[in-house]
Amino acid sequence: MKHLLDMTSLTLNEIQEILQQAERFRNGKQKESNNPVFVANLFFEPSTRTRFSFEVAEKRLGYEVLNFETSSSSVQKGESLYDTIKTLESVGASAVVVRHQNERYFESLLDRTSLSIINAGDGCGHHPTQSLLDLLTIRQEFKQFEGLNVVIAGDIRHSRVARSNAHVLKRLGVNVVFSGPPEWQDDTLSEFPYLPMDDAVEFADVLMLLRIQNERHTAKSNAHSTYLESYGLTIEREKRMQKHSIIMHPAPVNRGVEIDTSLVECDRSRIFKQMENGVYVRMACLKLVLQPNQKGMVV
């Protein structure tokens, strides 16, 4: 596999292969590369977890990391994404990890570069490595996907996490239900039913909360002041969750808005476990796209 762009491009076998490789990395297997491999991280939108998770994954794999700063790059002089990638290709990079504000930015690049492209998030489109780390977290908890009830709750319309997860979870046999404000429902995802949050918390084996994506809203919202009580996970709602059910969130968390502050690190929260798993999943994804380019690699 040369690129990792969205979850719909992955077969279920490829997904299982990535999850199994991630587990092997989690259990201590590391890779050593005898030849230098350069990977560039291009983040055109702010990111803490995804960017540092990729950087740690790359360094654990022994790759040379090229970090790109928009503010100090030739983007400030008008350089296009294509020309930036051609420059990195020319100086010897093997892959680029790209987060970009435009949906499907990668489509115009695929046939014009020899580099592998890993999509680290495209606008409201897709976030495949977040989806894969979510799958790993769920599998660690329940050992299987078939028959689970997963509620994805919050700002569905603007969430690439919701879009990436809903379809792949359905392919894996999961019952996917949404919950959230009517104004943030997404007509392109109408196949998935909605439940009020009071019902959703009792239904869910996995309650996957989403961040309110203020930066993608065209109009200012006053939802923050009432969101937690209307659509978020309050202490009272958490008490009505099933004993075995877990809480997930892709973060950053708006504490006291999407979830009560005291629940972020409660026993059923897997929020920081998701971040930990992100490193191993990204190691597995890098290995998958770069392995054909490497010689002398030992896994």
Can you give a write-up of this model?
By secondary structure, this protein is of the alpha/beta class. It is built from 9 helices and 8 strands. It has helices at 12-26, 49-60, 81-90, 128-142, 160-171, 197-203, 224-231, 235-239, 271-290; strands at 38-43, 64-68, 95-100, 116-122, 149-153, 175-179, 206-209, 246-248. The strands form 2 sheets. The chain has a 4-stranded parallel sheet, with helices on both faces. A 4-stranded parallel sheet has the order 6-5-7-8, with helices on both faces. The longest helix is centred in the last third of the chain and has 20 residues, at 271-290. The radius of gyration is 19 Å and the shape is globular.
In short:
The chain has 299 residues and is of the alpha/beta class. It has helices spanning 12-26, 49-60, 81-90, 128-142, 160-171, 197-203, 224-231, 235-239, 271-290, and strands spanning 38-43, 64-68, 95-100, 116-122, 149-153, 175-179, 206-209, 246-248. The strands form two sheets. A four-stranded parallel β-sheet has the order 2-1-3-4, sandwiched between helices.
Explain the layout of strands and helices.
Elements: H1 12-26, E1 38-43, H2 49-60, E2 64-68, H3 81-90, E3 95-100, E4 116-122, H4 128-142, E5 149-153, H5 160-171, E6 175-179, H6 197-203, E7 206-209, H7 224-231, H8 235-239, E8 246-248, H9 271-290
Parallel strand pairs: 1-2, 1-3, 3-4, 5-6, 5-7, 7-8
Helix pairs in contact: 1-4, 1-9, 2-9, 4-5, 4-9
